[in-house]
């Protein structure tokens, strides 16, 4: 499960632009306070009509008789619904010995109820995109699914039931605590993350914001089940929760359903006592030294700042963005441009109570850390007296305003992300914060800089006695009820059309044509919420012979595209795209390049011209190239002892061996470092001139745009750009690799990586492909309900992340079956045994009717959800142009899936998945002794000798 990171706005944008499997664990919280947890007495209420409350920009609040707050956010343009429930409990509410309890409980709530005994299976069968996250002030659970009444009723019933009826059983805890410990150890592999955790823990003497949300390893392993059950009964109640239903819903009907499922839950008679610990004013600098195995140096610092709802928070956020902006910020200029550090960054936490701002810099091993530290601290000291210009402030405001725009145009992301603002006291604080950002002036920024950025308010360095200490008293949170009492907000964003994501409808509405240079284009115009449009562009370059020996040049040339063009400097390009509220990623590497775009109808024409200019006219500035190399070198060196990176590189080299000068060659990390130093600016300029062009390009646009206008822009820009060197596809061939086993030792790394797989002669057009797809889904796909996840994570608690993948080429007979797991090194033997036993069981006993039906339903619904996302659909349409496919391919695949029998799936799985051919790569600290499990409270312990 995820642990939310950074402030609410950053967390929302991270979800919007990524959506990955794992989550970065950024720890910070405080010392422990014991809390008396009493049994919860309940009084059954009479079911009454919900009471309507505030309505702001399309979101309306209701309150049920039992105290549950409900937010309805209808959006008919969506083909999905997101149900999100936020509980006002996080690590701030944990008492002595309870660190990590809120997060551990988040895991336990997925273990089921008497009515829903297998929640992961239900989520997989519905094709839902679910998760749960825990943070300092709150915990939330959500699922996004196809917009049907049946699915909505199921989701509401699920969340209502697990609010009060979750098992929270001792046997589940015994396996899950090791899963959470495994998640804890994932963060322990990252020196930068651990440094921030240590600094923040030292920055707070008493408040729980100084404690890591994931908790103390000792507390996680020792928590009594009775304590966890009491914590659950105390906080998981309707009067301590806010339910959000967002997407394609009928508000009146949905509210009736919400009342039907949640209204019958009694309001508890217990009274929640607000947390009352106040962190005392810091009275001098504090310091931390962390010594661990690693390959990159770090320096960091934190300051205490105001709560997220305080008037100071908006100018503080602008200030942090201004001084850390890349490349205009003073920290960037003083550290990165001078080559004292490879990178720098800063962020703040928007919290209910006084929070923090954090800054850090990454310093290469061969650089002087003391020199970098002194420059880092002096720069932060100088912030107090800096004269910020209107341009500095407007640049930061544009960046934050762009993020707000992206969030507001994405209903399911906003539906999940409001949890951060609910935790601060009221969901409307999201809009208040947006409004506050727009009003910030340069004087506001300089005022908060002078007030907060004092050495006495900083955690870093050493203690320095002063006769007259200059201290900061951080303000308390204001009365949120008074803040939002008369707030009306702005007009709700215009809604889009109710779009049918079926393959037949997509094909019927898609327009295709070819430009004069051969570039293929697909248009799917439709009205969208906020007039958003998504575009996806691919350039295909060279051939196997012309690209030989040029892999590193191609990679760095692609990375440099966003670093400046003839018309735009790097800073100007970033500023312009921020002002246009456009999300643009331009990239290149190997034998391809391209761009992904998310913007609005009004700004699309300008953005397309900018993307064209950047692709056609990069300048490859020498000074910017040095900065890029330093950043990438730091990133690679930080992976030299990282188990995940080393295992992944080794696995790729074993499974796909090619000659060293082949464009597809997988270099070692050391080879990558050496290769970077050999590339020159002249190399990149020549590569661009020789290979870049749109003769073999394809592009798709999905959303709200004028088709004739865009066609004209493309014809006059990309359509007239020809490639000097012709593109020719590099075919891939099946390599029947012998099974290999490799163990890579990474000392002092508490987490390990396991990769296992085999190559297979498989194409996604093969008749057997659908059956193998289903077999893989049952074995290692889905959400925590695959056989591997149930055995290795749910039952035995060996791994936090475990699963399998199936890849098949669309053009060649080349496929791969891959399994993965993240685990503690001492569990290596148990993990491998469990993996092989589950594989043998699947081959020998086969899959069941129930498993197959659930997998097929999950795959079909998941595909429908993907087609309803404009950015994902744009990527699919672009890829299908190259493959000469329509969405009829998807329709036929789903038809084939629905027609499969258990016998067919079992036969195909046995045919392709041969355990004797599976290669295994594992990386970790395998020399570390296996720890003895701590005795449970009250248990007898040995006083000496061997147990």
Radius of gyration: 28 Å
> Average pLDDT across residues?
90
In one word, what is the shape? globular
The largest β sheet comes out as:
8 strands, mixed
The helix content, as a percent range, equals 40-55%
- Can you tell me the CATH architecture of the largest domain? 2-Layer Sandwich
Considering the chains and any ligands shown, give keywords for the structure.
947 residues; alpha+beta; Cytochrome Bc1 Complex, Chain A, domain 1; 4 domains; 8-stranded mixed sheet; 25 strands; globular; disordered N terminus; disordered C terminus
Mind explaining what this structure looks like?
The structure is a single chain. With 947 residues, the chain is of the alpha+beta class. Helices cover 41% and strands 17% of the residues. The protein is globular, with a radius of gyration of 28 Å. The two termini are 35 Å apart. Mean pLDDT is 90; it is low at 2-45, 461-466 and 932-947.
């Amino acid at each position: 499960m995820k642990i939310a990171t950074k402030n609410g706005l950053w967390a929302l944008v991270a979800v919007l632009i990524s959506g990955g499997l794992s989550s970065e664990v950024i720890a910070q919280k405080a010392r422990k306070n014991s809390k008396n947890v009493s049994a919860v007495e309940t009084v059954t209420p009479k079911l009454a009509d919900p009471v309507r409350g505030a309505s702001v920009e399309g979101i309306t609040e209701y309150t049920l008789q039992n105290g549950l707050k409900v937010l309805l956010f209808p959006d008919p343009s969506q083909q999905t619904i997101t149900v999100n429930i936020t509980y006002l409990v996080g690590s701030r509410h944990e008492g002595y010995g309870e660190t990590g309890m809120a997060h551990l409980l988040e895991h336990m709530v997925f273990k089921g109820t008497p009515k829903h005994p297998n929640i992961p299976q239900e989520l997989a069968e519905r094709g839902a995109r679910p998760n749960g996250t825990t943070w300092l002030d709150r915990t939330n659970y959500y699922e996004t699914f196809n917009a049907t009444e049946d699915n909505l009723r199921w989701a509401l019933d699920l969340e209502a039931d697990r609010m009060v009826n979750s098992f929270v059983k001792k046997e589940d805890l015994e396996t899950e605590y090791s899963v959470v410990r495994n998640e804890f150890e994932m963060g322990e592999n990252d020196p930068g993350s651990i440094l921030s955790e240590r600094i923040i823990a030292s920055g707070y003497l008493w408040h729980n914001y100084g404690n890591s949300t994931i908790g103390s390893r000792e507390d996680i392993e020792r928590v009594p089940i009775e304590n966890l059950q009491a914590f659950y009964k105390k906080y998981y109640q309707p009067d301590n929760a806010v339910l959000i239903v967002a997407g394609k819903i009928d508000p009146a009907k949905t509210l009736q359903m919400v009342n039907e499922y949640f209204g019958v839950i009694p309001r508890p008679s217990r009274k929640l006592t607000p947390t009352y610990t106040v962190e005392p004013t810091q009275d001098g600098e504090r310091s931390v030294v962390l010594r661990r195995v690693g390959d990159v140096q770090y320096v960091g610092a934190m300051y205490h700042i105001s709560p997220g709802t305080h008037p100071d928070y908006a100018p503080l956020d602008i200030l942090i963005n201004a001084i850390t902006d890349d490349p205009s910020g003073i920290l960037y200029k003083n550290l990165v441009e001078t080559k004292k550090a490879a990178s720098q960054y800063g962020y703040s936490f928007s919290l209910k109570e006084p929070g923090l701002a954090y800054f850090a810099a990454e310093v290469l091993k061969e650089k002087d850390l003391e020199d970098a530290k002194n420059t880092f601290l002096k720069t932060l000291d100088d912030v107090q007296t800096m004269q910020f210009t209107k341009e500095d402030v407007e640049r930061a405001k544009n960046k934050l305003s762009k993020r707000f725009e992206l969030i507001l145009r994405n209903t399911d992301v906003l539906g999940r992300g409001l949890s951060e603002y609910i935790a601060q006291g009221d969901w409307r604080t999201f809009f208040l914060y947006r409004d506050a950002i727009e009003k910030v002036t340069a004087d506001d920024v300089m005022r908060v800089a002078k007030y907060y950025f004092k050495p006495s308010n900083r955690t870093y360095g050493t203690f320095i006695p002063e006769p007259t200490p200059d201290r900061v008293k951080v303000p308390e949170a204001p009365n949120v009820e008074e803040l939002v009492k008369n707030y009306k907000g702005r007009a709700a964003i215009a809604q889009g059309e109710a779009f049918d994501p079926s393959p037949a409808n997509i094909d019927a509405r898609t327009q295709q044509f070819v430009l004069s240079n051969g570039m293929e284009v697909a248009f799917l115009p439709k009205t969208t919420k906020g007039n958003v449009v998504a575009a996806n562009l691919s350039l295909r370059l060279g051939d196997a012979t012309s690209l030989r020996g040029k892999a590193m040049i191609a990679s760095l040339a692609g990375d440099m595209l966003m670093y400046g063009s003839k018309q735009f400097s790097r800073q100007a390009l970033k500023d312009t795209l921020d002002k246009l509220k456009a999300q643009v990623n331009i990239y290149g590497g190997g034998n391809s390049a391209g761009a992904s775009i998310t913007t609005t109808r009004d700004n699309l024409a300008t953005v397309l011209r900018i993307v064209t200019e950047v692709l056609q006219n990069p300048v490859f500035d020498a000074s910017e190239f040095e900065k890029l190399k330093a950043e990438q070198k730091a990133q690679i060196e930080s992976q030299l002892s990282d188990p995940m990176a080393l295992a992944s590189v080794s696995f790729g080299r074993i499974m796909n061996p090619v000659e060293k000068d082949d464009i597809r060659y997988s270099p070692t990390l050391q080879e990558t470092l050496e290769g970077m130093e050999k590339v020159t600016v002249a190399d990149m300029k020549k590569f661009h001139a020789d290979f870049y062009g749109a003769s073999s390009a394809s592009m798709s646009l999905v959303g709200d745009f004028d088709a004739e206008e865009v066609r004209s822009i493309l014809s006059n820009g990309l359509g007239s750009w020809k490639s000097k060197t012709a593109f020719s596809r590099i075919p891939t061939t099946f390599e029947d690799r012998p099974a290999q086993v490799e163990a890579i030792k990474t000392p002092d790394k508490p987490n390990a990586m396991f990769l296992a797989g085999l190559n297979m002669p498989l194409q996604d057009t093969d008749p057997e492909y659908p059956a193998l797809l289903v077999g893989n889904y049952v074995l290692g796909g889905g959400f925590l309900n695959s056989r591997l996840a149930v055995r290795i994570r749910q039952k035995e608690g060996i791994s936090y992340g475990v699963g399998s993948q199936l890849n098949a080429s669309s053009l060649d007979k080349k496929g791969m079956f891959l399994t993965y797991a993240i685990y503690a090194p001492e569990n290596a033997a148990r993990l491998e045994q469990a993996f092989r036993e589950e594989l043998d069981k699947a081959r020998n006993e086969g899959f069941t009717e129930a498993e197959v039906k659930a997998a097929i339903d999950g795959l079909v619904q998941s595909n429908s959800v993907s087609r309803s996302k404009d950015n994902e659909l744009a990527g699919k349409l672009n890829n299908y142009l190259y493959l000469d496919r329509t969405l009829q391919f998807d329709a036929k695949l789903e038809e084939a899936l629905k027609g499969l029998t258990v016998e067919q799936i079992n036969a195909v799985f046995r045919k392709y998945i041969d355990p004797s051919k599976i290669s295994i790569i594992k990386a970790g600290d395998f020399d570390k002794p296996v720890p003895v499990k701590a005795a449970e409270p009250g248990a007898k312990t040995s006083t000496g000798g061997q147990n």
